[in-house]
Amino acid sequence: xxxxxxxxxxxxxxxxxxxxxxxxxxxxxxxxxxxxxxxxxxxxxxxxxxxxxxxxxxxxxxxxxxxxxxxxxxxxxxxxxxxxxxxxxxxxxxxxxxxxxxxxxxxxxxxxxxxxxxxxxxxxxxxxxxxxxxxxxxxxxxxxxxxxxxxxxxxxxxxxxxxxxxxxxxxxxxxxxxxxxxxxxxxxxxxxxxxxxxxxxxxxxxxxxxxxxxxxxxxxxxxxxxxxxxxxxxxxxxxxxxxxxxxxxxxxxxxxxxxxxxxxxxxxxxxxxxxxxxxxxxxxxxxxxxxxxxxxxxxxxxxxxxxxxxxxxxxxxxxxxxxxxxxxxxxxxxxxxxxxxxxxxxxxxxxxxxxxxxxxxxxxxxxxxxxxxxxxxxxxxxxxxxxxx
Length: 389
Ligand SMILES: Cc1ncc(COP(=O)(O)O)c(C=O)c1O
Prior knowledge:
Largest sheet: 7 strands, mixed
Helix content: 25-40%
CATH architecture of the largest domain: 3-Layer(aba) Sandwich
Number of helices: 12
Bound molecules: pyridoxal-5'-phosphate
Shape: globular
Number of domains: 2
Strand content: 5-15%
Order of helices and strands: HEHHEHEHEHEHEEEHHHEHEEEH
Number of strands: 12
Radius of gyration: 21 Å
CATH superfamily of the largest domain: Type I PLP-dependent aspartate aminotransferase-like (Major domain)
Structural class: alpha/beta
CATH class of the largest domain: Alpha Beta
Strand order of the largest sheet: 2-8-7-6-5-3-4
């Protein structure tokens, strides 16, 4: 037998995704209803598609500058400057290959052996493995469905120690849909800045806030940009995740380092995708309003349907397109979701995908039609009645 490759041992920090596991199994079955999808189910709005095609036709298929397409950086600086009341310029931005690369750059440029990163569970799948990949350790803060997965800012502040280099926030959050109030963000950002700790804020769902509430961006907090790194993208807002366009926002000083790092990862982003993103950000925003309206209807319905489900603890998420109900404490969500898929062909994502403390949870996505949501619960409600825990 030939010896296996001598992989970098740091790769062991990257687990097999629970999402892939469920998808692979579901692919072998018929009549599965997916409440597992992590991407918008709407077509990309036509004017964005047109701009993409037009960019291809005009031979805009070559490398951009390191930081990204100047037209995109400029429109982003204007939009975020207006939203946050900060004076932002192009040098405060770096275009990346989706928010995924933005998060990779932010986390792995700060985490290192001997350093700790505070992560709030349930946490988006990239955060903890990336800290591990960079040799850092994770300090977990646990939140629960009973609290609607809101975090107590004091708990985060108490966890900040001499080894803490960063706190990762994600509001609206995946997998919970939870939106933190401005007061939570302010308290965490202030305390982090005072201690020289960076707040990395993943804000990919910032436009998918379903209730009237204050902005959920850390850019609105009263701290210097040197202490903040914001990651976002066009993926979810405009239903164009395959175009792979995202960005980082921070101080000019921080971005000099991150830009250098970026040239060693993907060099530059996708050029036609960046032109499509300019069209998305500058064009008519009613497409976003329509999608948000649809998510709101689905959220309202799924919250009602969960109330009819025996054994599942629900709550009212205020953003994104996820909800993460929990089973009674100590129950195994992984075994439960597998059984639910096998017995009634409804596919959800097991909670342990999002952290050790989330074993009794399951993520349901409502990035699917109301009809499919109704059909899934028609199967789930009677099935759950028969379960005993
Ligand atoms: C919380 C969160 N951050 C980042 C991403 C990655 O976004 P992108 O597709 O722009 O790379 C996702 C995608 O599911 C997400 O849910």
